[in-house]
Amino acid sequence: MTTQGTLYGKVALVTGGSRGIGAATAVRLAREGADVAVSHVNGKEAAEDVVREVEALGRRAVAVRADLAQPAEAAAVVDAAAEALGGLDILVNNAGVGVLGPLETLSLAEVDRVLDVNVRGVFLASQAAAARMPEGGRIITIGSCIAQRVPGPGGTLYAMSKAALAGLTKALARELGGRGITANLVLPGPIDTDMNPADGPYAAGQAAMTALGRFGTADEVASMVACLAGATYVTGAEFSVDGGHAA
User: Which are the catalytic amino acids?
Assistant: First the structure.
């Protein structure tokens, strides 16, 4: 089946695209017509499943292994995706790690890992993508609702890493706007994934913090990403997909 949508002829890279929000986003962009590369660290089989799902929609796809905590790999995954699919129009910075716990228990290794992936990795991937993107490219970063409202203790490190993405996004919008490249930030709330299932031990409390009283789905986040991938006059902005978590 060949899909021709609003993104027909575009090439996208979704980091951390082997599962959850990343996998849903890769498939949604393919439904809109894009060819899609997905990166993964250890989820090779899951990434290959996403590739097959994209190909079933009539689009080209490739899976690339990359650990965004490694500076060289954060940039190289962009080059690998562009070379495999003939260019790059859309970067979705989705890969991230979360370490929660009391402030005094967080080790330097944990601090470095979270900031390396969630902040430096996003910066380096965006830098590499901007060097390859044509006029009108898109950089869409997945943040977190916890950057707007921290519901309780234990989230200091994670919240700090996700809050940094707001400044990065606004600066990218200003720096790249002259080339028609937009940069936007999506802030998911509690989303039903294997990392944070809607029937997990802490799910009821998370759902209760939202105005809608439920978890969101990965597809609901992916729909916002697809909208921003097609938008031409939206940049430097933040979009909550959080069921009213920040309301």
Answer: 158
Q: Print the SS3 string covering 184-232.
A: EEEEECCEECCCCCCCCCCHHHHHHCCCCCCCEEHHHHHHHHHHHHHCC
Domains, the chain = 11-241 (3.40.50.720)
Look at residue 4 in the predicted model and tell me its pLDDT: 65
Instruction: Give the pLDDT confidence of 17-71 residue by residue, as tens digits.
Output: 999 999 999 999 999 999 999 999 988 999 999 999 999 999 999 999 999 999 9
**Of 12, 8, 10, nearest to 26 (Cα)?**
12
Is the pLDDT at 207 greater than 70, yes or no? yes
pLDDT in tens, 165-182: 999 999 999 999 999 999
